[in-house]
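Students often ask why we bother encoding 3D structure as a string. The short answer is that it lets us treat folding as translation between two languages. Here is a chain of 153 residues written in the first language.
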Amino acid sequence: MTKRVNLYAHVNLLQPFVDYSHAAAAESGLEPILKELVKIRASQINGCAMCLMLHTTEARRIGESEMRIYLLDGWREAQHFTPRERAAIAWTEALTKLDHSAMDEAYAMIEAEFNEQERVWLSMLIGIINVYNRLNIGFQVSPPRSAQIAVAA
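And here it is in the second language, the structure alphabet:
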């Protein structure tokens, strides 16, 4: 591994994006669990260990079950997710992978479950987590060892 710049030592450069991401999450009006499922699924696709650690911990803290977190990668076969969650997850996959062949089907799913504003908010939140994934992976930001993690109750 090549030594990289400590990304978070440059918080002054990141702060506008961090503020934007917090405001977008707060103002979206989307369900907290749904937002975490989207963040986890995008982070699974991108292989961002730091974001996976953060968002699975947050999901458990706000009441998400271990079972649904485990099954998220296999959501198509698991009947543990609501139609609204399934639509959000499909849209997350389509936007994260930029899968043009899946875009129309995924959009039809969110169109059935989300109003216009929610579709825009959801898309913005997917874009935000993808930026965090790319920054963390690019700068090799790793989660702390398990002994150092304050696991949520």
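Translate back mentally: The radius of gyration is 16 Å. Keep this in mind for the problem set.
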